[in-house]
Amino acid sequence: MTEINTPERLRQIGGSEAAAVLGLSPFESRLTLYMRKRGELPPFEGNEFTEAGSRFEEAICLWLEDKLGLDLAMGDGTENDLMVHPDRPWMIGHIDAWNVAEEGGDFGAEIKFVQSPAKYGEWGAEGSDEVPVYYQIQCQHYMAVKGWPRWLVGVFLAGIGLRHYWLDRDEKVIAHLIEKEREFLDMVEAGTPPDPETDMDLRLRWFASTDKTVLVTPEIREALVLRERLRRERDLATERYDDVCRQIKRFMGDATVILDAHGNELVSWKQQKRFDESWAKGERAELMKKYGKLDTARLRKEEPHVYRMYVREPHDTAEQVRTLRNLRGMENLLKDIDA
Known about the structure:
Elements: H1 15-21, H2 30-37, H3 48-68, E1 72-74, E2 83-84, E3 92-93, E4 97-99, E5 107-114, H4 133-146, E6 150-157, E7 161-168, H5 171-190, H6 199-205, H7 218-252, E8 257-259, E9 265-268, H8 285-291, H9 296-302, H10 304-310, H11 324-338
């Protein structure tokens, strides 16, 4: 649920902002959140993706009730169901739903609608606690506010179906979260911006360049040397990667899939049948008349050598079971807590 923007909200932290405070949100950086709190950026009013989530929220919640045999009450998304921490009024949240049945105890529910297949790999086995780290932080924030021991996450993965997950209250994470949220609000009140973390942050922090010069420090000199070394390593790695891909493609020939001994797919490459019209002008114009842009099957059959010259191959892609961001985010959180 998208947090409501009011003047009071600028001095409070909601559940959907908690991961950004820790630098773990893919949607908002610490600096952009800081600037919104300071009024230096407009508040987030939602987009078509958040609107889709809101419109499907009730249906997903009802489906979750039927699937798990629950009795959930839903919030209306207004100030009427605003939750406020009993001892920390700056710690607030709007929860999507909560248990109202006598059995099951106190718990809330967070409803998600995921439209992008690229995000499916961030979700683990159903019934586990393997949800994206930024949603784990959001639910721990809510558990801190309400004092409840667990949280249910229901997610509809478009094209796959409804899944549910259970998160247990983690006192160490909550203590860390409370500390960092309070520090963040102190920075907002003092006008001390967080360090930029992304390219967009850098552009926002220093909007215009000047003729000013700065003297290099030993640390930055090391960074410059490292940058040059990494650039060379990247170029070599890219060249080596392309060589390996060509080796694999030579082995495959006209096959599209490589299998292991058990029949599991290891890799697949498939020609995209896109004929590049710009490559077939002048003396090649007759090819266009004969085969057209779309009749690549006929071109491949009748003139395979021409097909190989003028049909472009796509880059290979690999499905990620867990995104690197999710793994790094949890690792960084655990390091901060243990520090």
